[in-house]
Amino acid sequence: MLLPIIKLKDVKKSYKFGETTVEVLKGVNLRVTPGEVVGIFGPSGSGKSTLLNIISTLDFADEGFVEILENEISPKKFTDNELALFRRRYIGIIFQSHNLMPEMTAFENVYFSLLLKGYSPKRAKKRAEDVLEILEIDKSKMHKNIQLLSGGERQRVAVARALAMDAEIFVCDEPTAELDKKNAINLISVMSNLSYTGKTFIIATHDERLLPFFTTVYRLEDGILNLTEKKEV
Ligand code: ADP
Ligand code: MG
């Protein structure tokens, strides 16, 4: 029995607009173990991004308990700086549109992140090439400016960069929203392959094409997360 690496208990989150308060998360419970590929479905505005921001430690819950990799995530336990370091070390964040450096090549995007992490140039080069190949960005694509790559290739570069940085948890917000079927399936396939090495994926989506690849599926409805499917991993 694997220990959970993500635990949320009765998590609540609201936003205030002047006098009115919108309750977005009304008591979310979630436990995720290593190697799970979790799909979170829910209509637009249901709070998927709000929930992912809490899991990725970009935002704190108002109430309830959040634990990531055995660390309680709360303003009492972490300063902003400590939390930024924790996030950089353990969490890869993949958005709908990639957040890569647009003026760089695929290789440089991964390589410079590794230099900043303290890798020597030689080790950074080898590791950048290795992870890009795992994500099926071959040598002919690696040295192109990322603006010359397709949307699917750019998403795979974003995953490669997170993988190179040794992320344990990949938090992905509608990662296939801008991809055609072939690229969407390719992206979720490489994610699924990485999950067999113990990496964990939390993916908010509307994309029914991804369903066969999830080990666990939830629906976020009326501020509550409901389990709809769970396979053994
Ligand atoms: P989803 O990702 O499922 O579309 P969101 O989490 O983005 O949903 O939004 C849920 C609700 O919270 C929406 O009503 C949205 O307008 C509101 N909301 C989200 N982020 C903020 C914010 N930073 N400030 C105020 N309201 C927000
Ligand atoms: Mg969203």
Quick one: biggest sheet? 6 strands, mixed
Strand content range: 25-35%
What sort of overall outline do the alpha carbons produce when their principal axes are compared? globular
- How large is the count of helical segments? 7
What does the average pLDDT come to? 94
- Order of helix and strand elements from N to C terminus: EEEHEEHEHHHHEHEEE
List the strand order in the largest sheet: 6-7-8-3-9-10
- Helix fraction? 25-40%
Bound molecules: adenosine-5'-diphosphate, magnesium ion
Radius of gyration (CA) equals 18 Å
| Distance separating the two termini | 11 Å
Structural class computed from helices and strand pairing: alpha/beta
Give the number of DSSP strands: 10
Low-confidence stretches: none
Model description:
The chain has 233 residues and is an alpha/beta fold. 33% of the residues lie in helices and 28% in strands. The chain contains 7 helices and 10 strands. It has helices at 48-55, 80-90, 106-117, 121-134, 139-142, 151-164, 181-195, and strands spanning 6-17, 20-32, 37-41, 63-68, 71-72, 91-94, 169-173, 200-204, 216-221, 224-230. The strands form 2 sheets. A 6-stranded mixed β-sheet has the order 6-7-8-3-9-10. A 4-stranded antiparallel β-sheet has the order 2-1-4-5, with helices on one face. A hairpin with a 2-residue loop joins strand 9 and strand 10. Helix 4 (121-134) packs across helix 6. The protein is globular. The model has no long low-confidence stretch (mean pLDDT 94). Residues 48-49, 173 line the site of magnesium ion (MG). The site of magnesium ion has 3 residues, from helix 1.
